[in-house]
Amino acid sequence: MKVIPSKKFKKKVAKLESSLRKALATRLCIFVETPFSVILNNHALQGSKRGYRSINITGDYRVIFEQYDTDTVRLVDVDTHNNLYGS
Question: What pTM does this model have?
Answer without folding.
Answer: 0.93
